[in-house]
Amino acid sequence: MLNQSGRIARIRLLAASAMATAVIGAPAAALEGAGPSSASPRGLLPAAAAGPVTIVVSTDRQHLTVYDGDRAVAESVVSTGMPGHSTPHGVFSIIEKQAFHRSTIYSGAPMPFMQRLTWSGVALHEGHVTGHPASHGCVRLPAAFAKELYRYTKRGARVIIAHDNVTPAPIAAVAPFEPPPSRRFVMGEAANDGRMPGEIEQTDATISAARIRTRNDVVGAAPVTALVSRKTGMLYVRRAFAPIFEAPATIDEPNRPLGAHVYVARRSSGGAVSWSTMTVTGQVREALNAPEQHGTKSDEAARAVLPSSASGALARVHLAPGTEARLNTLLSEGATLIISDEGARLHESWAGTNFIAIVE
Asked: What 3 state SS string does 192-256 have?
């Protein structure tokens, strides 16, 4: 429940957002604890994120929530795709940003503060928001919030689009967190010898005090994203939208759905690594919610095969010891693991993405 100061803060926020087409702002709990140093000038989003940023869109609620780590820091009403032009559900990331963009599909329609989610045309952007499905598949945002969200995010930020309002849930360690071991050069060794794509080598202090810089330095600090696909039985690993390696994965009960689950690594206040997970539900949920017929479950519900929970999906996936060790050396804060029934070679996950897992 809001105290009096919280109510005042909320009222001020609503007043600041009056020019938007819908009410937007920070969650009440965040407003109560936010100080001047953590708030942006408009107060819609913090000045910067402390942890991995995740954006969650609920098409059932026409609602968007922004998370900094596991903490909700802002929310907004949205308008997603209307019937015949539905917004896809699944796991995405921001793959391109343009402060002003025109649609190449719909007669050059303006799309201010565009944050692309797929190369086929789905994006977050400023638009007319009604709180009801109204777009051609994009997620429309109120003007003030679209501008603030554009400032707050970076390419690679994870976006979850689901029917329900998905929230992060803690989960036991997904994999051991080990920083990449330092490496040293010796005289005569080429800087690229033995390098794994995307890795940065360490300078040998006996050779030079200057840091060796390569084209990989631009992406070397970016967290990795790994996808386990039931469809292909493979693990795929990318960093900054570029492939690093892939390897076979063994999946128990390979004909049973895994579901779509996202696991994100973050550092706790004590410096240790903790994990949170989000699950995107699909048609199984709709089947199980189908009305009963003459006191019995509908045919759809009777035939539905439940996918695994987030912890159950992890337990069904097995990697070779060498593959797991290689993956672990790449893990860092913000590293993401996606487990999905879809394949990385789905056309939406072609080069230039950190994987897209569509949930039907």
From this structure: CCCCCCCCCCCCCCCCCCCCCCCCCHHHHCCCEEEEEECCCCEEEEEECCEEEEEEECEECCCCC
Work out the number of other CB atoms within 10 angstroms of the CB of residue 100: 11
How far is Cα of residue 345 from the mean position of the Cα atoms in its chain?
19
User: Which residue in this structure is represented by tokens 């695994």?
Assistant: 308
> What are the pLDDT digits (tens) for 234-286?
999 999 999 999 999 999 999 999 999 999 998 766 667 789 999 998 765 44
CB 255 within 8 A of CB 243: no
DSSP assignments along 128-196, one per residue:
---SS--BSSSEEE-HHHHHHHHHH--TT-EEEEESS----EEES-SS---PPPP----TT--TTTTPP
Sorted by where each starts, the structural domains of the chain and their CATH numbers stand as: 4-167 (2.40.440.10), 171-183+223-359 (2.40.440)
Give me the half-sphere count of Cα atoms (radius 13 Å) on the Cβ side of residue 161: 27
Q: What would the pLDDT profile of 146-174 be if each residue is shown by its tens digit?
A: 999 999 999 999 999 999 999 999 987 78
Given a contact cutoff of 8 angstroms between Cβ atoms, the answer to whether 264 and 336 are in contact is yes
> Cβ-count burial of 97 within 10 angstroms (0-12 exposed, 13-18 middle, 19+ buried)?
middle
- Which pLDDT tens digit goes with each residue over 278-313? 999 876 544 444 455 555 555 544 455 678 899 999
